[in-house]
Amino acid sequence: MDVMPWPKGQGFKGADTWWDYVHNQDEEHRLENLLGLALLDPEICTSLINGRDLELMEAFGLSPETQHWLCSIQADDLAQFAQAIIAQRKTHTTSA
Fold first, then answer.
1. How confident is the model at residue 91 (pLDDT cuts 50, 70, 90)?
2. How far apart are alpha carbons 21 and 1 in whole angstroms?
3. Mean per-residue pLDDT over the chain, rounded
4. Cβ neighbourhood burial of 56 (10 Å; 0-12, 13-18, 19+)
5. Among 17, 34, 43, 74, which is most exposed with the fewest C-beta within 10 angstroms?
6. Is residue 60 within 8 Å of residue 30, measured between CB atoms?
7. Contacts of 3 (CB under 8 A, 6+ apart)
């Protein structure tokens, strides 16, 4: 199954199934899918952590607000990036 974001996908069968699944999830789960893909692919990880690749975030259907927030995270690696996301979620759920 091709899980790489368009237009960089490899064209393998199953891409439409994967992206239909991703886009039918809520934003939290789409973000989790993006982080999972970053764990599997060093290029995606670099694009997310160092490049703050908006095209990548848009491919996962993340809102402009979430994209802006993700771009504001200061992290040197995926573990720090994920920890910042978890910390934000904890803050958000305890203040709600």
1. confident
2. 12
3. 85
4. buried
5. 74
6. yes
7. 9, 15, 18, 37, 40
Angle between helices 78-95 and 42-49 (to 10 degrees): 60
Rounded Cα distance between 31 and 34, Å, is 5
Q: What does pTM read for this prediction?
A: 0.79
Q: Which two tokens stand for residue 48?
A: 């997310």
Torsion of CA 72, 55, 36, 6, to 10 degrees: 180
Total Cβ atoms within 10 A of residue 40: 10
